[in-house]
């Protein structure tokens, strides 16, 4: 087993992103949930159509990356394309958890209930 | 080769349609301390792995041309998933603890609820760096002692060796056990809740 993307030919990554090097949006966290708003169409770039099929149900950016075996960086570029064309929507994390700011206690209580019910 | 993870799951188990809030918890620790085992014990799905490309400065690479050059480093990590309720999904990341990966953690820790530092009492020094970084970053954490059957140390000995402050919870666990790993997560979130409540009442 090889780690995804590890032995990836850099030229292939370049092709996948059609030479573009930057995601047009920084909006995608590792756990941003992506949802398809449209079906894949014939002639669409294969990575784009795979993402649209995969994200019929909410799917995190890291899951898309693991499934496509492409680095998160490359996946962010592909997702930006789809977001810009209105083919997906993105549900961003609502934690507001940062080093300086703890998540609010209500959210943590929900997490505790969920964990205790496991 | 890491047989504990699968990069090609036979079946993907989708989330419910109403899922809209992804949360993160990071499990850090030295080589072979049981990170992947713990993720697998509590995850709803088989752990998956992927990678991120980072520059040495800790910046996420947003330039594919950098992947082709030598200016970036690739870091693999694994993760699992726990559905908490109809809207909330917790992602659990297993992050390598070695010093050369600090740039990955800084990225992963942004927006995480908190961290579990997994330690093997036979190799406590392996976790010093992780604890340093967490303290520096201000990320709340707990310490979980994974029992590999080594010599028994008192909690106080371990705290001393880690120079751990009194208010950081420390518990014993067996990462192979689901109830034990679940208890580790609950201990972390209870700690976060106590910190959060204290902060809210101080405001
Ligand atoms: N005795 C004992 N063995 C354990 C425990 N947890 C994990 N192991 C074993 O330790 C070995 C390493 O566990 P992993 O989960 O792969 O460790 P890791 O931290 O993910 O390792 P790397 O990703 O390679 O750094 C495996 O063979 C596990 O079965 C534990 O609580 N007790
Ligand atoms: Mg591992």
UniProtKB/TrEMBL annotation, chain A:
<protein>
    <submittedName>
        <fullName>DUF742 domain-containing protein</fullName>
    </submittedName>
</protein>
<dbReference type="InterPro" id="IPR007995">
    <property type="entry name" value="DUF742"/>
</dbReference>
<dbReference type="Pfam" id="PF05331">
    <property type="entry name" value="DUF742"/>
</dbReference>
UniProtKB/TrEMBL annotation, chain B:
<dbReference type="Pfam" id="PF03029">
    <property type="entry name" value="ATP_bind_1"/>
</dbReference>
<protein>
    <submittedName>
        <fullName>ATP/GTP-binding protein</fullName>
    </submittedName>
</protein>
<dbReference type="GO" id="GO:0016787">
    <property type="term" value="F:hydrolase activity"/>
</dbReference>
<dbReference type="InterPro" id="IPR027417">
    <property type="entry name" value="P-loop_NTPase"/>
</dbReference>
<keyword id="KW-0378">Hydrolase</keyword>
<dbReference type="InterPro" id="IPR052705">
    <property type="entry name" value="Gliding_Motility_GTPase"/>
</dbReference>
<keyword id="KW-0342">GTP-binding</keyword>
<dbReference type="GO" id="GO:0005525">
    <property type="term" value="F:GTP binding"/>
</dbReference>
<dbReference type="InterPro" id="IPR004130">
    <property type="entry name" value="Gpn"/>
</dbReference>
<keyword id="KW-0547">Nucleotide-binding</keyword>
<comment type="similarity">
    <text>Belongs to the GPN-loop GTPase family.</text>
</comment>
């Amino acid at each position: 087993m090889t780690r995804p993307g590890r032995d990836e030919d850099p030229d292939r990554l370049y092709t996948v992103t059609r030479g573009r090097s930057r995601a047009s949006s920084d909006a995608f966290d590792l756990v941003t949930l992506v949802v398809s708003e449209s079906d894949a169409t014939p002639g669409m770039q294969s990575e784009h159509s795979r993402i649209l099929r995969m994200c019929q149900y909410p799917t995190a950016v890291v899951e898309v990356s693991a499934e496509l075996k492409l680095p998160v960086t490359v996946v962010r570029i592909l997702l930006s394309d789809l977001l810009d064309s209105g083919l997906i929507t993105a549900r961003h994390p609502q934690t507001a958890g940062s080093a300086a700011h703890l998540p609010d206690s209500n959210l943590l209580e929900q997490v505790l209930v969920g964990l205790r019910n496991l | 080769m890491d047989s504990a993870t699968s990069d090609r799951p036979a079946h993907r188990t989708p989330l419910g349609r109403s899922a809209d809030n992804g949360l993160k918890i990071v499990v850090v620790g030295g080589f072979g301390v049981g990170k992947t085992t713990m993720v697998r014990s509590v995850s709803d799905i088989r752990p998956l792995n992927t990678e991120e490309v980072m520059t040495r400065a800790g910046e996420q690479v947003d330039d594919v041309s950098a992947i082709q050059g030598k200016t970036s480093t690739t870091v693999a990590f694994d993760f699992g998933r726990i559905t908490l309720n109809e809207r909330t999904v917790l992602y659990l990341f297993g992050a390598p603890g070695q010093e050369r990966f600090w740039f990955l953690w800084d990225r992963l820790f942004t927006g995480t609820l908190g961290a579990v530092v997994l330690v093997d009492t036979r190799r406590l020094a392996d976790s010093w760096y992780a604890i340093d970084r967490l303290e520096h970053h201000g990320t709340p954490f707990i310490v979980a002692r994974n029992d590999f059957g080594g010599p028994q140390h008192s909690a106080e000995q371990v705290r001393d060796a880690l120079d751990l402050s009194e208010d950081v919870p420390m518990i014993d666990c067996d990462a192979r056990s689901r109830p034990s790993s679940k208890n580790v997560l609950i201990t972390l979130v209870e700690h976060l809740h106590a910190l959060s409540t204290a902060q809210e009442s101080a405001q």
